[in-house]
Amino acid sequence: MNKVILMGRLTRDPEVRYTQTNNTLVASFSLAVNRRFVRQGEERQADFINIVAWSKLGEFCSKYFKKGQQVGIIGRIQTRTWDDDQGQKHYVTEVVAEEAYFADSKRDGETSDSFETTFGNTMPGAADFEVSSSDDLPF
Questions:
Q1: Looking at the DSSP assignment, which residues form a beta bridge with residue 70?
Q2: What domain range includes position 92?
Q3: Fewest beta carbons less than 10 Å away: which of 1, 5, 33, 100?
């Protein structure tokens, strides 16, 4: 199985180009994804991961994603190689986006900034469960 789930901040606005063969839109950008753990006495480290989004998803990313914005990406890892004009071989590993989400908190008086409203309700039956106060919690 080849599945990647990332949440990070865009390091630049998405760059759009079109393929030469069939004029398909492709948007590319990179995410700064914080590492989970910090070594004592050091600053938090981040990995910079290249993302490509094709066709309609690429159009969505190019239109709505901006540098510094926090986003969620679900996709797959892809490696590829090519030779440049001087015959030098290049290798690249990137994530091909299959889904893209806003992950920043909402602004300008909008109400919710929870993970659930950003990524959708993923717990079966959770929509039917409502807690009116913290006294109702079983723990």
A1: 9
A2: 4-136
A3: 1
